[in-house]
Design goal:
Strand 4, helix 3 and strand 5 form a beta-alpha-beta unit. This protein has a three-stranded parallel β-sheet, sandwiched between helices. Strands 2-3 form a two-stranded antiparallel ribbon. It has four helices and five strands. It is mainly alpha-helical and 135 residues long.
């Protein structure tokens, strides 16, 4: 027979303490990852180059996705700051798309005032590896 107060209530407390420690470790890990992302994201290592390669991302018919829009804007900004004389937009056709990602980016850059002769596009790739290889 078990006596009252001996060990029966300790097991749930141990589990609760274990779960709290695990939650604390998880929170510390997430804070560390978030800090690293902010640190790396705030470093500017831009320097002179032969070309600025902008990797493709989703495009919705003639409109770039928000992520792609920011990539294009950043490439245009680097171009306007004189880091390279040419912008290379990559990205092929998505399933059923009328325009390739690179064509959408080219149109965006032209509307932003980038001269046509400063833009190259690559329309055949479907993956990041292909984007880079074909560039």
């Amino acid at each position: 027979m078990r006596r009252r107060g001996s060990g029966g209530a300790r097991a749930p407390r141990r589990r609760l303490r274990w779960l709290l420690r695990l939650a604390l470790l998880l929170a510390l890990w997430l804070a560390g990852v978030a800090s690293w992302i902010v640190y790396v994201g705030n470093r500017d290592q831009a320097g002179p180059a032969d070309a600025i390669v902008v990797l493709g991302a989703a495009a919705y018919d003639t409109r770039p996705s928000p992520v792609f829009t920011e990539r294009i804007r950043h490439g245009i900004d680097l171009y306007e700051r004189g880091y390279a004389p040419v912008l290379v937009f990559t990205g092929g056709y998505g399933d059923g798309a009328r325009y390739s990602e690179s064509q959408v980016a080219r149109t965006y850059a032209l509307r932003a005032g980038v001269p046509e002769d400063a833009i190259l596009i690559e329309t055949l790739s479907r993956t990041t590896r292909q984007n880079l290889a074909r560039s």
